[in-house]
Amino acid sequence: MASLKELKGRINSVKSTQKITKAKQMVAAAKLRRAQAAAEAARPYSERLSSVMASLAGKVAGDSAPLLLRGTGSDRRHLLVVVNTDKGLCGGLNANIVKAAKVRARELLAQGKEVEFYLVGKKGRAPIKRDYADRIEKHFDTSEVRDPGFAEAERIADDLLAMFGAGKFDVAELVFPVFKSALAQEPVVQQLIPVPAPAPSMVDAGRPNAGSQTVAGVVDYEPNEEEILADLLPRYIRTQVFGALLELAASEQGASMTAMDNATRNAGDLINKLTIQYNRSRQAAITTELIEIIAGAEAL
Amino acid sequence: MPLHFELVTPARLVRSEEVHMVVVPGTDGEFGVLEGHAPFMSTIRDGQVQVYRTAGAQPEVIAVRGGFAEVGEKGLTVLAEHVDG
């Protein structure tokens, strides 16, 4: 049985831990709102870009299509772009992302393809390094900026485009968590390069009052369809990466909020248990003392 | 009839308003868009978008970098990666 002093010390330490987890939970809740607002604000741009892409991609098909749309014609070398957080304290979020990435990697390797990793964020490094140390192409460090934004997305996308231009891979896939709610963030694998042509019907379904529905054949293009598309594709990829970063930010805060809520509750339970134990030991000590006094008095 | 003008960046919707005319720096030269313009799409070079709220008014100048402009039946949409000011 731990002594009274030890128990008191433990109770105090759990109490201070609880304070930290509670504070982190509230911070995460506030940040989650901001992250969701940011994701909301980014929607108009990506929706418009997708709809324009869809209408253009349908027109420019076949051999005249840019390399980014057509692909290299092979799908042997894959690059997995895994987006993780920089900080912990967010439950199983990073573990789930890494797990999804590893499942995909195993699948591809089983098909006899080559797989390389491009890691964004700190927390994915160690677990992926453990299994695929020689397949990591590059780390992209986002730990120095507070909120990874479009500037980071741009740098990541430009990096990827340069690597694609240099013929380092055939297919790039993006692994990132999709924010569903504070309780659920689901990692998804999405093809990034070559750009999968968005289906027009799918894009329009998401926006009933389509603001820029273009009728085929009527629209004038300057300089021409091919050049606009070639100019648009890198932007589209940047937007995709940016979207992944926004989803990640929202997921991180959501997961963090839930995990910290659990931790706070667990700490509360632990404090209750320890307090009961403390009170019992205190009572036992008092009883023993009384017995000693009474026994002493009786002996006289 | 005013022209509906929207300026969008990846991070936010910068402008969404009714204006008289917008001059956009297209890759092949500047072009002005008034209400009722034919459907049109162009890439833009880094430069300044001039927004004329009313005919003959002093234009409001917005510097944009990287993007494209689209004129549809609902008006003009400029998608730009960076907007200064």
Explain what this protein looks like in three dimensions.
The complex is a heterodimer of chains A (300) and B (85). By secondary structure, chain A is α/β, with parallel strands linked by helices. Chain A has one domain (22-205, 219-258): ATP synthase, F1 complex, gamma subunit (Pyruvate Kinase, Chain: A, domain 1, 3-Layer(aba) Sandwich), CATH 3.40.1380.10. Helices cover 61% and strands 13% of the residues of chain A. Chain A is built from 7 helices and 6 strands, in the order H-H-E-H-E-H-E-H-E-E-H-E-H. Chain A has helices at 4-59, 67-70, 93-110, 125-132, 150-165, 200-205, 225-299, and strands at 77-83, 114-120, 136-140, 171-179, 185-193, 220-222. In chain A, strands 3-2-1-4-5 form a 5-stranded mixed beta sheet, sandwiched between helices. In chain A, strand 4 (171-179) and strand 5 form a beta hairpin. The two termini of chain A are 33 Å apart. Residues 201-217 of chain A have low confidence and may be disordered. By secondary structure, chain B is mainly beta. Chain B has one domain (3-33, 40-83): F0F1 ATP synthase delta/epsilon subunit, N-terminal (ATP Synthase, domain 1, Sandwich). Helices cover 0% and strands 68% of the residues of chain B. Chain B contains no helices and 8 strands. In chain B, strands 1, 2, 3, 4, 5, 6, 7 and 8 form an 8-stranded mixed beta sheet that branches. In chain B, a hairpin with a 7-residue loop joins strand 6 (47-52) and strand 7. Classes of the chains: A alpha/beta (300), B mainly beta (85). At the A-B interface, helix 1, helix 5, strand 6 and helix 7 of A face strand 5, strand 7 and strand 8 of B. Strand 6 (220-222) of chain A pairs parallel with strand 5 (40-44) of chain B, so a sheet runs across the interface.
